[in-house]
Amino acid sequence: MKLTNLLSVAFFAFIGGNLRYLIGQALGLVGTLSVNLGGCFLLSFLTYYLFDRRHVPSWLTTGLGTGLIGAFTTFSTFSLELSKLLLAHAWGAASAYFLLSSVGGLTSVWLGYLLAQRLRGLNR
């Protein structure tokens, strides 16, 4: 385990966690959905565009992927908010939130992949 990787994860997690907190405070449930979908897109884009390139140092890929995106997105908050909706018998809202998060997450990953492939094609 490299010290540079650990420091990079800590640094970027500080940024990602604070961004998530600020967005969550400003937007509530919509904020959680936004950061999770945005994180899906960003991780996919970074993975297929930036991380696949051999000249990107491991401390940066680890810091951005695990630190920034890992701290920015939040499965635990998604699960808690979904549970609150279910406990409140808000079946429609819970279903919509679950579907938007699941289908939206996969769609965001796909869009990040497509953008990365397009940009890589332009840079050849």
TrEMBL record:
User: Where's it mainly located?
Assistant: membrane
What species does this protein belong to? Ligilactobacillus agilis DSM 20509
Q: How is its activity regulated?
A: Na(+) is not transported, but it plays an essential structural role and its presence is essential for fluoride channel function.
Reactions catalysed, semicolon-separated, are: fluoride(in) = fluoride(out)
Q: Which GO terms describe its cellular component?
A: plasma membrane
This protein's name: Fluoride-specific ion channel FluC
Q: Which residues cross the membrane?
A: 34-51, 58-78, 90-116
To which protein family does this belong? Belongs to the fluoride channel Fluc/FEX (TC 1.A.43) family.
Q: List the InterPro entries hit by this protein, alphabetically.
A: FluC (IPR003691)
GO MF annotations, alphabetized: fluoride channel activity; metal ion binding
Task: Enumerate the Pfam families for this protein.
Answer: CRCB (PF02537)
Output the PANTHER family linked to this UniProt entry.
FLUORIDE EXPORT PROTEIN 1-RELATED (PTHR28259:SF1)
Localization, per the record, is: Cell membrane
Q: What does this protein do?
A: Fluoride-specific ion channel. Important for reducing fluoride concentration in the cell, thus reducing its toxicity.
Keyword field: Cell membrane, Ion channel, Ion transport, Membrane, Metal-binding, Sodium, Transmembrane, Transmembrane helix, Transport
Topology within the bilayer: Multi-pass membrane protein
Q: GO terms for biological process?
A: cellular detoxification of fluoride
User: Which positions are annotated as binding Na(+)?
Assistant: G70, T73
